[in-house]
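STRUCTURE:
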């Protein structure tokens, strides 16, 4: 990754803390852009801000611990005021493809539990149509081959079982991920609904109608997109 891309991610990630207020409970998304949010949030906590975070991945939990961001979980009747998360693609309706880092299920649970969702991205993630980036689909390992065949019959142009260093990638939930290219997606909500009907599918990386604001990191600053 170039320094310029990293700078754009940093700008977007850091900007998001401006929406965080004392006393809030925050959903902490996953990925290299949210890393900057968590780092900045750690600075604010060290200066006395009182917040708690609910992490959406084991990696995020590690960063929160590293930067001194206090954590909580859903067991304690937690209500999330705000969630901040990254994305792999954002379209003009703020529909998203997420899960490039494999955290889609926990991210969707955290984001759906939050009153508001802010997405932080570098400008390369803002697209006119979803679909260039394959849709990650988390599936139960048992019978994944059958699940894959069913999804292939749904207009999927290519489908790959995600691997990491030649081993099958296993999500934080113990599941596999299929990366599915459908070409440009005309109706993301329909596609998501159809995929969810397939036995063995746990969740899709299509996040529809959840996002309130998008913060875009650019070469010359940040842009805040509002609905
Ligand atoms: O599973 C990973 C998440 O959906 C990430 O939020 C997404 O992949 C964007 O990550 P990054 O900010 O590293 O591009």
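SEQUENCE:
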């Amino acid at each position: 990754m170039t320094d310029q891309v990293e700078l754009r991610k940093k700008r977007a990630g850091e900007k998001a803390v401006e929406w965080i207020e004392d006393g809030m409970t925050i959903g902490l998304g996953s990925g290299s852009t949210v890393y900057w949010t968590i780092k900045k949030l750690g600075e604010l906590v060290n200066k006395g801000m009182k917040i708690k975070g609910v992490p959406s991945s084991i990696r995020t939990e590690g960063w929160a611990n590293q930067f001194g961001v206090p954590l909580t979980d859903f067991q304690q009747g937690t209500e999330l005021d705000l969630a901040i998360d990254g994305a792999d693609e954002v379209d003009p309706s703020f529909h998203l493809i997420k899960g490039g880092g494999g955290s889609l299920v926990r991210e969707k649970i955290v984001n759906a539990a939050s009153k508001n969702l802010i997405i932080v991205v570098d400008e390369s993630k803002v697209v006119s149509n979803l679909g260039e980036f394959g849709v990650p689909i988390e599936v139960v390992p048992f019978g994944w081959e059958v699940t894959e065949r069913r999804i292939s019959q749904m207009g999927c142009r290519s489908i790959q079982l995600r691997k990491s260093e030649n081993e099958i990638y296993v999500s934080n939930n113990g599941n596999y991920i299929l990366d599915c290219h459908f070409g440009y997606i005309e109706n993301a909500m329909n596609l998501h609904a159809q995929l969810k009907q397939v036995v063995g599918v746990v969740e899709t990386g299509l996040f529809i109608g959840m996002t309130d604001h998008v913060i875009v990191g650019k070469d010359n600053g940040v842009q805040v997109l509002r609905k």
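REMARK: The chain has six helices and 15 strands.
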